[in-house]
Design a protein that fits this description.
The chain has 211 residues and is of the alpha/beta class. It is built from five helices and 14 strands. The mean pLDDT is 96. The chain binds cytidine-5'-triphosphate. Residues 11, 71, 89, 91-93, 95, 119-123, 138-141, 153, 157 line the site of cytidine-5'-triphosphate.
Length: 211
């Protein structure tokens, strides 16, 4: 099965939300799972757009990569990259941002409080968009009640599939992963594997739907 002639959009990595000109709020995502999916999709013949937060990974062969920093920039880049046949939102997007201070916050302050506002939910926006891809896939990063939370998240965000990821045990930044694939048909338990193996299996399934 191939993805010849298909456009596949992948988001990967963390986002960085600035606090001031020198500081950011980040998370532990390495981008490895998303980059592996982009690589596998390109190897299967797709035209791949990879929208990457700040990571230190090389661009997989044949992949068109767009680097962004913040959730807002990632949302804009995703909407600009449409239309696509399938979107796989692997990025660990920040859920909140702060209005960054114009100058470096000095430690002479006795206390510092930050005022957080929610970021845009890129997956939910894409689901509601007139250009919604035929296959929309999210990754649910959970540390408790993994399946129940991911099942609810699939419905709430309007994704076709949600890949449930237990990130309580070193998955973020690690080389291996263990996931459940959640669809309207139910919950599949996938064997543990390298992030490349998980990517190959997911891309195989995507090709099965799109071809
Ligand atoms: N996501 C997104 N935009 C956001 C937050 C998340 O597109 N602002 C996407 C992620 O890329 C992922 C899915 O939504 O595919 C689930 O992300 P996750 O962090 O697990 O869920 P949240 O919506 O952040 O929910 P919570 O933090 O309550 O678990």
């Amino acid at each position: 099965m191939t993805l010849d002639g298909k456009h596949i959009l992948v988001t990967a990595g963390p986002t960085h939300e600035p606090i001031d000109p020198v500081r950011v709020i980040a998370n532990r995502s390495s981008g490895r799972q998303g980059f592996a999916i982009a690589a596998a999709a390109a190897a299967a013949g797709a035209r791949v757009t990879l929208i990457a937060g700040p990571v230190t990974l090389p661009t997989p062969p044949g992949v068109h990569r767009i680097d962004v920093e913040t959730a807002e920039q990632m949302a804009d880049a995703v909407l600009r990259a449409l239309p696509c046949d399938a979107a796989i939102m692997v990025a660990a997007v920040a859920d909140w941002r702060v209005e960054p201070a114009a100058n470096k916050l000095k430690k002479t302050r006795a206390r510092l409080s930050l005022n957080f506002t929610p970021t845009r939910d890129i997956l939910a926006e894409l689901s509601a968009s007139p250009q919604r891809p035929r296959l929309l896939i999210g990754f649910a990063a959970e540390t408790e009640d993994v399946i129940a939370n991911a099942v609810a998240k699939r419905e709430r965000k309007g994704a076709d599939w949600m890949v449930a990821n237990d990130v309580s045990t070193g998955v973020m930044g690690g080389a291996r992963n263990r996931v459940n694939l959640i669809s309207a048909a139910g919950v599949e338990d996938w064997p543990e594997g390298s992030k490349e193996e998980i990517a190959a299996r997911l891309v195989e399934r995507i090709a099965g739907i799109l071809s």
